[in-house]
Amino acid sequence: MPWKSTLARVSWDFSTDPEFQEKLDWMAQFVRTEIWPLETLYGELDFDSLMRAVEPLREAVKRQGLWAAHLDPELGGQGFGQVKLGLMHEILGTSPIAPFAFGNAAPDSGNSEILALVGSEEQKQRYLQPLLAGDLRSAFSMTEPGTAGSDPTLLQTSAVRDGDGWILNGRKWFSTNGSIADFLIVMAVTDPEARSHQRASMFVLDADTPGVTIVRDVPTMEHPWESLGRYGNHAEISYENVRLPAQALLGAQGAGFLIAQQRLYPGRIHHCMRWLGVAGRALDMLCERALYREAHGSVLAKHQTVQNWIADSAAELQAARLMTLQAAWKIDTQGVQAARQDIAIIKFYGAKVLHDVIDRALQAHGALGYSTDMPLEAMYRYARAARIYDGPDEVHRASVARQILRGYEAPADGIPSEHIPTRRDAARLKFAEILEAVTAND
Ligand SMILES: Cc1cc2nc3c(=O)[nH]c(=O)nc-3n(C[C@H](O)[C@H](O)[C@H](O)COP(=O)(O)OP(=O)(O)OC[C@H]3O[C@@H](n4cnc5c(N)ncnc54)[C@H](O)[C@@H]3O)c2cc1C
Known about the structure:
Structural class: alpha+beta
Largest sheet: 4 strands, mixed
Helix content: 40-55%
Radius of gyration: 26 Å
Bound molecules: flavin-adenine dinucleotide
Order of helices and strands: HHHHHHEEEEEEEEHEEHHHHHHH
Number of strands: 10
Strand order of the largest sheet: 1-4-5-8
Number of helices: 14
Shape: globular
Oligomer: single chain
């Protein structure tokens, strides 16, 4: 019997409709033959060269009707829903460049969802339409170096009323793509006295607004070298007396948390599916290696430890995939709120599976796996961040435990409800007649 909180009735259908499967097949082939080769040149390409290389790929994606598929049809997307999007992201996740070529790379995809959800007509025209067309780039600027990103109620960046408009002050970091962004979505405290989840609001502003300074791109495990203005870098940004017009407010005043949640929940499905794409590729490498590398009298595939790695990886990937698709299905059928627990579960579980599968594949390759001659070391560094961004593991685990515990209560008498002597006494009473008959027959 499943535990209490999952007793809701569900119906199951694991098939993909044939028409959509054709699209997925096209995508898989396209990503493999047209995008994977570009990865090997990625380090040599500056952003402009990358754009030149990706432009014809984007045109091909648009011709297939797969561009910016995360949005509803009235915004130029396909309105696929989260299950189909998830299946797409599994394929796109196999390459860091693929989401960019398909117009649904983070953070632009999430930012376009925010603009679609709460943007005014003017904001949609100015930012959303060109973002969807691929003519603008964006960043989401919420995390601060001085406060815990895992508890955004502590945010300190402030936006204070100034006539009709606002004055923004604060420092953010890890604003992905901040140094190449044309516009920024910034979360700032507007109502310091309000309840903790109603203190902050979102603003959208041009990146060249006076007072906005890109301090640096923060070198990370993924990109350990100093660089500025590369796609995928994470910017530290100072906002100093930035004057914003009233129209910069995105959605309602005080709705920052609500909007952030609406952006992050479906985004986590996409992250998890992309991780499956990466981990699946690592498993392919593990299996290939197992079949040709000989050590201690046989190929690795004949050693039980390696067999266990392959079997465990396949089982974990399958579990993570089904869990993620189920969370996606719940969003599609019951809405984002109903899927909260499922999304939190896949966020920390998926990040662990990603890490563990890559780790085994890397180990099976020995020194070659550790070298940059294989993509595994880069995947490994990429995987480490998955346990931190979009909420660290610990926060998701705590949230899952809290939600599960709501379905339980402590026994009033302090005796566990499964306590066998207590249950036996009760059973003796309930089945007294049968017990008496048994005794009488002795
Ligand atoms: C690759 C990458 C990309 C990112 N992109 C963006 C972006 O585009 N925009 C943006 O605004 N931010 C971005 N971030 C920032 C990210 O959202 C934060 O790093 C994350 O929310 C954690 O915040 P923090 O780094 O301040 O860690 P902290 O909040 O200081 O947490 C540190 C550690 O404390 C522990 N911890 C926290 N809470 C609990 C708890 N309740 N129980 C037990 N332990 C706990 C966890 O181990 C956690 O890792 C990105 C981060 C990375 C790594």
